[in-house]
C-alpha cells in the first residue's frame, strides 16, 4: 500500500535550475568580477555533478586549476556558493519560480488520502525553505513533517543516503513509498534505497535514459495539457494524479 510520496526538489517540485540556481550563479560571478557565464548547455553538463558547491569546484578545477589550488581556493568556492544561494533566495522570493503543473494538486490529494508527503533533496534546508515559502506559503512546513537535505547526510545523490534517512524518519518500508524525481542521479539514489520511482523529466533532463523508473513522463500533465511518456504497462498519455500513482505503485510492487 502506498503510504508516502517523497518529492525531490530541484527539477521536480519546480524548474529551479534554469531560471534560479543558474541565473544566481551568473549574478554571483558578475558581482565577484569573474568572467564566467554558464549558459544552458554548460549548465546541463554541470548538472551531472550533484551539489552546487561540488559543481562550482568541478568547473573551477577545469578552467583555472591554479587559482583553485591557491591557499584561499576552497574559501572562495564557499563564498561564491553562499552568495549564489542568497541571490537564489531573492529570485525565488521575487516570484520568479513556480511549482510545476500538477504538483500542488498531487500534494493536496495525498494529504487528503492520509498519505504522508516528504522531501528528499541534494540542496540545503535554506534553499528548500526559500522555495516553499514563496510557492506554498509559511504553512508549508506543517505539511512536510520529513524534510531531508544534503545538510543531514554524508553523501548527496546518486548515493542513497538522503532517501535512506527519509525512510528512517518516515518509519516506512521502501516498498510502501514512491519517489518523484527528475534526473538520472535522483532516480539512481531512490533505486539504491529500494524505493520505486516515477520520473517527471524537466528542462535539463528531457533526453537521458532513466533505467528502472516505474514510469517516465514529461511532467504530471493536466487536462488541458496532458503529459506523455511511458508507464509500467507501456506508452502513457494523460494526467498523473494520485489514483494513477497508486495504480502504478501496485504494479511495481507486484512485478
Ligand atoms: C539538485 C542539486 C542541487 C541544486 C542546487 O538537487 O544537485 O545541488 O542544483 O543546490 P535535487 P545547492 O536533489 O533537489 O534535484 O547549490 O544548494 O547544492
Ligand atoms: Mg532534481
Task: Chart the SSEs and their pairings.
Layout: E1 4-7, H1 16-31, H2 40-46, H3 52-63, H4 65-69, H5 73-93, H6 103-112, E2 116-120, H7 125-135, H8 140-143, E3 146-148, H9 161-170, E4 177-181, H10 184-192, E5 197-200, E6 215-217, E7 227-231, E8 234-238, H11 242-254
Parallel strand pairs: 1-2, 1-4, 2-3, 4-5, 5-6
Antiparallel strand pairs: 6-7, 7-8
Helix pairs in contact: 1-5, 3-5, 5-7
This protein binds xylulose-1,5-bisphosphate and magnesium ion.
Question: Main traits of this protein?
Answer:
globular; 255 residues; alpha/beta; binds magnesium ion; single chain; 11 helices
Distinct bound molecules: xylulose-1,5-bisphosphate, magnesium ion
| Cα distance spanning the termini | 14 Å
Give start-end ranges of low-pLDDT stretches: none
Strand content: 5-15%
Spatial order of strands in the largest sheet: 3-2-1-4-5-6-7-8
Q: What value does the Rg take, in angstroms?
A: 18 Å
Structural class: alpha/beta
The H/E string reads EHHHHHHEHHEHEHEEEEH
> What is the overall pLDDT average?
96
Helix content class: 40-55%
What is the strand tally?
8
Largest sheet: 8 strands, mixed
- Individual helix count: 11
Shape: globular
Amino acid at each position: 500500500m502506498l503510504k508516502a510520496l517523497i518529492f525531490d526538489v530541484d527539477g521536480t517540485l519546480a524548474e529551479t535550475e534554469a531560471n534560479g540556481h543558474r541565473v544566481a550563479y551568473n549574478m554571483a560571478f558578475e558581482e565577484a568580477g569573474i568572467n564566467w557565464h554558464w549558459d544552458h548547455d554548460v549548465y546541463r553538463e554541470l548538472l551531472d555533478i550533484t551539489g552546487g558547491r561540488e559543481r562550482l569546484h568541478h568547473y573551477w578545477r577545469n578552467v583555472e586549476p591554479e587559482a583553485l589550488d591557491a591557499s584561499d581556493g576552497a574559501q572562495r568556492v564557499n563564498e561564491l556558493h553562499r552568495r549564489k544561494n542568497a541571490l537564489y533566495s531573492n529570485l525565488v522570493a521575487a516570484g520568479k519560480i513556480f511549482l510545476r503543473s500538477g504538483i500542488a494538486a498531487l500534494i493536496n490529494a495525498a494529504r487528503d488520502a492520509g498519505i504522508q508527503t516528504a522531501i528528499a533533496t541534494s540542496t540545503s534546508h535554506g534553499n528548500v525553505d526559500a522555495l516553499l515559502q514563496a510557492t506554498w506559503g509559511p504553512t508549508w512546513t506543517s505539511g512536510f513533517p520529513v524534510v531531508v537535505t544534503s545538510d543531514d547526510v554524508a553523501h548527496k545523490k546518486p548515493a542513497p543516503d538522503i532517501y535512506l534517512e527519509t525512510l528512517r524518519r518516515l518509519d516506512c518500508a521502501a516498498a510502501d513509498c514512491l519517489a518523484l524525481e527528475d534526473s538520472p542521479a535522483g532516480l539512481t539514489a531512490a533505486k539504491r534505497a529500494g524505493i520505486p520511482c516515477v520520473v517527471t523529466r524537466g528542462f535539463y533532463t528531457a533526453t537521458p535514459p532513466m533505467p528502472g523508473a516505474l514510469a517516465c513522463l514529461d511532467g504530471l500533465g493536466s487536462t488541458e495539457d496532458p503529459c506523455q511518456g511511458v508507464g509500467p504497462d507501456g506508452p502513457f498519455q494523460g494526467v498523473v494524479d494520485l489514483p494513477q500513482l497508486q495504480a502504478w505503485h501496485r504494479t511495481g510492487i507486484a512485478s
